[in-house]
């Protein structure tokens, strides 16, 4: 069963669920929400801090990114808390390559880069999931 919110996904991670799986299932929940308000509800509650600085910053970036990409009209205030930012850069590639780190530095969405998280251009894309509305 998919988590109903980002806060629930983080709770599952703290209880031992695989991070990638719990977050991907949350993104499915968000994408399948029928209205803007229903989507906002999935990110409104602040996830508890985990003592994993990367995860704490990552969930802030995810919530802000989804709110902006899907034009929810507001971003939860909790995403701006100091614990939602990293002090040191984190390049999410699985191998240490200067070229890849440089690439990620330039293509990372602002919601991630502002938190010192450097990832791919569309970090939450799914192979066949819904895409953000085009204007």
Offer a concise description of the structure.
Helix content is 47%, strand content 3%. With 135 residues, it is an all-alpha fold. A two-stranded parallel sheet has the order 1-2.
Using only C-alpha atoms, the radius of gyration works out to: 14 Å
Number of DSSP strand runs: 2
pLDDT < 50 runs, ≥5 residues: none
Main sheet strand line-up: 1-2
Output the structural class: mainly alpha
Please describe what this structure looks like.
By secondary structure, the protein is mainly α. Helices cover 47% and strands 3% of the residues. The chain is built from six helices and two strands, in the order ααααβααβ. It has helices spanning 6-14, 19-32, 36-44, 53-69, 98-107, 110-113, and strands spanning 90-91, 117-118. The chain has a two-stranded parallel ribbon with strand order 1-2. It is globular. The protein starts with 5 loop residues before the first helix and ends in a 17-residue tail after the last strand. The model has no long low-confidence stretch (mean pLDDT 90).
């Amino acid at each position: 069963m998919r988590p109903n919110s980002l806060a629930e996904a983080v709770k599952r991670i703290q209880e031992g669920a695989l991070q990638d799986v719990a977050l991907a299932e949350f993104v499915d929940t968000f994408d399948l929400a029928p209205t803007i308000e229903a989507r906002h509800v999935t990110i409104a509650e602040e996830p508890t801090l985990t003592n994993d600085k990367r995860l704490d910053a990552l969930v802030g970036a995810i919530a802000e990114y989804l709110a902006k990409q899907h034009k929810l009209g507001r971003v939860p205030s909790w995403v701006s808390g100091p614990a939602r930012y990293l002090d040191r850069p984190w390049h999410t590639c699985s191998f240490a390559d200067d070229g890849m780190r440089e690439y990620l530095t330039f293509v990372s969405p602002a919601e991630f880069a502002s938190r010192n998280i450097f990832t791919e251009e569309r970090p939450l894309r799914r192979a066949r999931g819904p895409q953000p509305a085009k204007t």
